[in-house]
Amino acid sequence: MQKAMIERAKQLLDDGTVKRVIGWKRGEFAYDITPAVFETADELDKDFVFDDFTAANVSKYLVKESSKEGKVLAFLKPCDTYSLNQLTKEHRVDRGNIYVIGIPGGPKLDIEKIKAKGITGITGIRNENYTLKIETIYGEETMPFYEAVLDKCASCKSKKHVTYDELMGEEGDILESNRFDMVEKLENMTSQERYDFWRSELSKCIRCNACRNVCPACTCENCVFDNPKSGIDNKAPADSFEENMFHIIRAFHVAGRCTDCGECSRVCPQHIPLHLLNRKFIKDINSFYGEYQAGADTTSKAPLNEYTTDDCEASIVHERGVE
Amino acid sequence: MLKVSKSKLNELFDAIAAKQTLYLPVDRNDGASEYKKYESGMTMSKALNTVRSAKDFFFPQTENLVDFKMEGKNIEVIDVRKESEDFVIFGVRACDARSFTILDKVFLSDPVDSFYKNRRDHGTVVTMACTRPAETCFCKTFGIDPTVPEGDCACFDDGENIFFLAHNDKGQKFVDSISSLLEEGDARKLADVQEQARAVMERLPLAKLSTENFGGDKLNEYFNSDKWAGLSESCLGCGTCTFVCPTCQCYDIKDFNTGKGIKRYRCWDSCMYSDFTKMAHGNPRLTQLERFRQRFMHKLVYFPANNNGEFGCVGCGRCLSKCPISMNIVKVMKALEDK
User: Fold this and answer.
1) This prediction's pTM
2) Please, what sign has the CA dihedral across residues B210, B335, A33, A255?
């Protein structure tokens, strides 16, 4: 697949369809991939990579890249296309300035899950019939492929590309996913148990803002939390409660716009399952207003932006809060 | 050399914790490890790196500096400093141990930072030699020997025993305080373990990484390099690298209005943030390129320029593991060198 992608990118650069290509660049090791823009065939040959570790969603970079002169070619996995659609709907990208090639999705791998097995000194990783053969300076290790899959891929919602100009590989379907299982588990806890769960998770936060900065739904020019004039800027928490509030406020702000791409949890250096906050909102929106998938299209009105007479009453909050 | 059998480690930890607060790296259920206040029965993590480095003990993410109480036109200034309790950080790795030397150069040079000094004076750093370095380790690049870590007292694991070597008076005092649990041991096996670890160090993927092309005299050569644009291109502008870094030491000072007065506090800041260096007239670092460049120039050029050639990195590898886009100091060094 990687070879075919490079060849197609070269053609599109060569015939002038696009000026730049956004994809992923090889790193020092087998797994440390960096999103990157390529402008020449040489650069593509040298560094372009598409493998089990190219999990990063490059859609958000298109806010900047599509504002530049000339078209940009973007290789998007199914989940990434939902993000692009949502950005198109919000007028944050110039869709006409992007040439999208839909490429197959994951499951992609999480190097942290491999390292959590105590495997270290990693010099190479091969996937042989869904067994990972991991070369290390201490000898070869093996582990089942599916034990190293990223959480966001383990609960994949769709293998279908919702926007593209051309497809490579076969098109997939929207999946019956298990993505709300953990949300349900949290809902079934007592309020004290749930509170303890989130306090324990969110207290790990170091407030690095990686979740916000990677989030394709967070494209404000200047976030309120960074703006000294907002009155609520906070670079550091006065106590651990503020940390909770940051994440909860952010989840509210992206409610109805979050496509559930899972990047927030993927990049969290402290492994906080932030996507569960977003999924709770998605699940509630589905049950209150009918099924809605942000990013599935570019024209429908979001439930939280539209008033209808069948909308649930605000008292639902109280009714549901009773244990 | 004095030692304790590993089967008696918890007795040892209990004895230390009976006299002063003990912090230990422990495994979390998500596969990461972090320093926790010791409670009886806790097991020390075998992990190389905690997510947050040990710098937190001396330079916490937030701390109050001074309070102002306001009544009418009177302002009362309240000094909130308190004498730190005595504490021991056990199991610090060689990279983090060296980071204290770097932080000392910043906080203990004139004018001395009394908040930092207070904690340094009361804290004892007990290090643990590495036997199983990771592919992301490159402490050797900065002249660190992870098989003989610095710190007040170093520990060595030969598989069955932990050996103790005091490096200074504070370390000796620590060893004396637990001497009833220690016995004289044969360190021959330990020498083999160290030899093996050194051999592994030579085979690490980053073993050849060198600082020879960096230092205080490289300012003009690198500042205007055309490599920065590509290197910083996909930087998210988050603070992960700076906050997990054991040597990043920049902070912001802010006032919090309590309604009855002001709490002035400081908190970690990141040169990667858009409001870092923001002043009344605006921000001199307009784009992520300048912010990104600052972080690496600081570690590889400015810091050595001002500190007799010492670099502002210890090769712990945290930024290699944690950066959301896997951009890091190793990639920057290699790119800048590649002319």
Assistant:
1) 0.94
2) positive
